[in-house]
Design a protein that fits this description.
Blueprint (H helix, E strand, L loop, with lengths): L1 E6 L7 H14 L4 E6 L4 H10 L3 E4 L6 H12 L4 E5 L17 H8 L3 E5 L6 H13 L5 E7 L3 H15 L3 E5 L9 E2 L2 E2 L8 H15 L2 H8 L17 E6 L9 H9 L2 E6 L13 E4 L8 H6 L1 H12 L4 E4 L1 H6 L2 E3 L5 E3 L7 E4 L7 E7 L11 E6 L3 E3 L6 E4 L6 E4 L1 E3 L2 E4 L9 H22 L1
Parallel strand pairs: 1-4, 1-5, 2-3, 2-4, 5-6, 6-7, 10-11, 10-12, 12-13, 13-23, 14-16
Antiparallel strand pairs: 8-9, 14-15, 16-19, 17-18, 17-20, 20-21, 22-23
Length: 455
């Protein structure tokens, strides 16, 4: 089995494009690849899925313990012939930017993954070798097994390769030249989502073709063929499970594949629906999951779908167990400011209006602490979460306490009850499976109450 991580000295090194190109090229070679992304990123895995047609999974060593991440990795890699994990930020950049915890290096170390270091040789030559040597020596083992020259012409690569190999002792596996029409555009939360780029498949194909010519495949297979595999556990049988409605469309697209797996493992049958396009919640739904996404981009269309807004409000007010994160939390509020500055009516199940800010709000990892029992948490429990949003609410609730892990800065947030979790922090059910179990149990109890009421 071919296994490797693609990382880089810093953000902006083209890791996502290179990862997608490698995934597509491995797929063309019949090696049935699967993908992972280090950290809490939702958007990059969408591009992995676009290249493969299968789910990509996150490896996050703040949101989950090392043993849980190893189990997840083995479960998802089983039955595949190759694995490519994409790092986050710079190789050693972890929690708070001042530790290596939850960094790409931490994931490589926990999983014993060899690393292909992607470097952009813009404006440096011998100094590039010095930087790579620093990365090799900063932590032991570094797990760096090879170098790849990204956004680099073959002529420049032929000049740099012998020097880099001599000075660093690492093999250079090739280069990927600049492919102008394959540039992936960005917006306020990172890259535009894969679904918004109409010709994405053609773009990825062109990059994969360029990579195919620029990669030393014999060296890659020699370095990264680990010659081991695992048996995949049977998927959970969700037939007859507890039906939980899951929002999934252009506006609500920030969902971890492994969170959905955790819900299925806990006995849920997932009913996907669109707050943008459907008129009401699925009839059989006994629970509601509203993940994050970009509701601010679709505020007008969400407002126009009044029947769905009423359906959601009625369900929440009737006590249907509901989990709403970030964008889902904004959707449950009274109004939401759109990109055009206008305020649009939302579901109205919670107080507060969604308003735009000029910078990221409460960005990064934190710990949520519960003072009382609720749908997902019990009094005294603490839960790792993350936030990443430019919008805020005029009423964030006060049901939980969030604490920054390094600074200790804290604030109150969230609306919680025995049937509700609604707040900006994103949850990661794969790291704490009991959250999924409690959610499903709540939905099952709601189903029983509804059946009793109907009788």
């Amino acid at each position: 089995m071919v296994e490797l991580m693609i990382s880089a000295p810093a953000s902006g090194s083209g890791k996502t494009v290179l990862t997608c190109a490698l995934l597509a090229a491995l797929k063309e070679r019949g090696l049935n690849p699967c993908a992972f992304k280090c950290g809490p990123d939702y958007i990059d895995p969408m591009f992995h899925r676009a290249a493969l047609g299968v789910d990509s999974h996150n490896l996050d060593l703040f949101l989950a313990e090392e043993d849980a991440v190893r189990r997840l990795y083995r479960r998802c890699a089983a039955a595949h012939g190759s694995v490519v994990a994409e790092g986050a930020m710079g190789f050693y950049d972890g929690l708070g930017g001042s530790t290596h915890r939850a960094s790409a290096w931490h994931a490589a170390d926990a999983l014993n993954l060899p690393v292909l270091l992607a470097v952009r040789p813009k404006g440096a030559s011998l100094t590039l070798a010095a930087q790579i040597k620093g990365l090799l020596d900063f932590r032991r083992p570094s797990h760096i097994a090879g170098i790849f020259l990204n956004d680099c012409s073959p002529m420049l690569a032929s000049s740099l390769t012998p020097m880099l190999e001599r000075e660093t002792g690492l093999p250079v596996l090739g280069c990927l030249p600049h492919v102008e029409d394959a540039v992936l555009e960005s917006r306020h939360l990172g890259l535009r989502t894969a679904g918004e780029i109409g010709d994405l498949t053609a773009r990825l194909h062109r990059v994969a073709e360029a990579l195919d010519k620029g990669m030393d495949w014999d060296r890659l297979f020699a370095l990264f063929d680990r010659r081991e595999g695992w048996t995949a556990p049977p998927p959970p049988d969700s037939r007859g499970g507890v039906p939980i409605a899951v929002a999934q469309d252009e506006a609500f697209c920030f969902t971890y594949a492994e969170t959905l797996d955790a819900l299925r493992d806990a006995g849920a049958e997932l009913l996907f629906f669109s707050p943008l396009h459907d008129k009401a919640l699925p009839e059989r739904a006994c629970g509601l999951y509203l993940p994050g996404g970009y509701p601010e981009l679709y505020a007008g269309a969400l407002a126009d779908n009044g029947s769905m807004r009423r359906s959601v409000r009625t369900a929440v007010e009737a006590g249907m167990p509901t989990v709403a994160e970030c964008g889902g939390f904004l959707y449950l509020g009274q109004t939401l400011e759109g990109m055009d500055g206008a305020n649009y009516p939302m579901a109205g199940a919670l107080p507060g209006d969604g308003v735009r800010k000029e910078r990221l709000v409460r960005f990064g990892y934190s710990q949520l602490r519960a003072e009382s029992d609720s749908l997902l948490l019990r009094a005294g429990e603490s839960l790792p979460v993350h936030e990443f949003h430019y919008w805020d609410s005029t009423d964030n609730g006060d049901g939980l306490t969030a604490v920054k892990p390094l600074t200790g800065r804290s604030w109150r947030c969230g609306f919680v009850s025995g049937r509700l979790y609604a707040a900006f922090p994103h949850l990661y059910f794969a790291g704490r499976p009991e959250l999924a179990e409690r959610f499903v149990r709540g939905a099952e109890q709601y189903r029983e109450e509804r059946i009793t009421h109907e009788i």
